[in-house]
Design goal:
Blueprint: E1 2-7, H1 23-39, E2 44-47, H2 60-68, E3 75-78, E4 81-82, H3 88-102, E5 106-111, H4 118-121, H5 129-145, E6 148-151, E7 159-163, E8 175-179, H6 183-192, E9 196-199, H7 209-221, E10 231-239, H8 243-265, H9 272-278, E11 286-288, H10 290-304, E12 308-312, H11 320-347
Parallel strand pairs: 1-2, 1-12, 2-3, 3-5, 4-5, 5-8, 8-9, 9-10, 10-11, 10-12
Antiparallel strand pairs: 6-7
Length: 349
């Protein structure tokens, strides 16, 4: 069982002061958060790609590389790379470079992305949304296995027996598929034999269990050993020394961020009652003290089969010291309890 963090490097206004942190400062803070996550023994840190004012990480590989030379063990991944609007060759080169700097700790989490700002920015048509991802994933997977490639497609110039460098330390460089939970993306990942990351950010996490089963069935249908394929989750949450403090600190910035997105996407208003329902034992928010969060992660592991859990913190801007404390508690209190219980549970199966 792996435990880690994911972030979008948010720069929304501080709900207490109205101050908007600069992109540069927030990027430096995230590097500090990655270093601390490594020091407290967490397994993985993910940075998500966005191209808008309220998120500072348009280039996750660069941020991860800044932390790579200051860390020793933690795995470093995008969360996600918006592959549809990227050049797969450049993505592979960036993460192969990160793999070299970190001596074999880089990963790519490829996804279509739930935000669309990158499409007009890089000259892509949203009408090609599905086709772009399928074609570019095909090219990325060829890069994973071959130094020299020959490839042709509709949305990128053809390549004829050209080498792509540098080569990564890991053989192969891990590529995960990020999914919001639709059946088509889950089946695609299974058929390709790629590890899967599910964004479990609403409803009951247990509702994702059938998707995990579907994923494994698709993998087995395609001849892959499903027992060797990992399933991860990315879930919003926050940890403090006591549960009420955690809830009271996490709710205001989360409400601001969710309502801002809600206005863009036509969602209903996000209020304290919906927040409190989501942080119940069966809900999708992992908010509370260390014991509360650990028990929810164990519940997810036992009932859905998640083998990597990534706590997405924060959702909206929070004081850096509070985020650092949450990371410290996740690494020193939550992760050991979860791993001990999972090991005990597996030993008696």
């Amino acid at each position: 069982m792996e435990i880690g963090i994911s972030t979008f490097v948010e720069t929304t206004p501080d709900v207490r002061t109205g101050e908007v942190i600069s992109h540069a400062q927030r990027i430096r803070e995230v590097v500090e958060e990655i270093v601390l996550a490594d020091q407290v023994g967490l397994d993985v840190f993910g940075v998500g790609e966005h191209h808008r004012e309220d998120y500072a990480a348009s280039s996750p590989a660069v941020i991860l590389a800044a932390a790579a030379s200051q860390t020793k063990n933690i795995r470093l991944t995008s969360a996600v790379t918006v592959l549809s609007s990227a050049d797969p060759i450049r993505v592979f080169q960036d993460f192969a470079t990160l793999d070299g700097i970190s001596n074999g700790r880089a990963e790519i989490m490829a996804g279509r992305g739930s935000f669309i700002e990158s499409f007009p920015l890089f000259g892509y048509d949203l009408r090609d949304y599905e086709e772009l991802f399928d074609e570019k994933l095909d090219l990325l997977l060829k890069l994973q296995t071959s130094e020299k490639i020959t490839w042709s497609g509709k949305h990128r110039p053809a390549i004829e027996n050209l080498g792509v460098y540098p080569r990564p330390v890991q053989k192969p460089l891990p590529i995960w598929i990020g999914s919001g939970g639709n059946q088509e993306s889950v089946v695609r990942a299974g058929l390709l034999g790629l590890p899967l990351v599910l964004a479990i950010i609403g409803g009951s996490p247990l509702h994702f269990a059938p998707l995990v089963e579907l994923y494994k069935k698709a993998a087995e249908h395609a001849g892959h050993d499903s027992s060797k394929l990992k399933v991860a989750s990315h879930s919003h949450g926050f940890i403090a020394d006591d549960t009420e403090t955690a809830a009271d600190k996490f709710f205001p910035p989360t409400q601001y961020a969710m309502n801002k997105l809600g206005k863009e996407r036509g969602w209903g208003s996000y209020n304290r009652s919906s927040f409190d329902a989501a942080r119940s034992f069966e809900g999708a928010l992992y908010v509370g003290d260390a014991d509360t969060v650990a028990e929810k992660i164990i519940h997810l592991r036992k009932n859905v089969g998640i083998e990597r859990f990534m706590l997405h913190v924060p959702v909206g801007t929070m004081p850096h010291k509070d985020v650092m404390r949450a990371i410290e508690l996740l690494g020193t209190k939550v992760a050991p309890k979860v791993k001990e219980e999972v090991a005990r549970w597996k030993s008696v199966q």
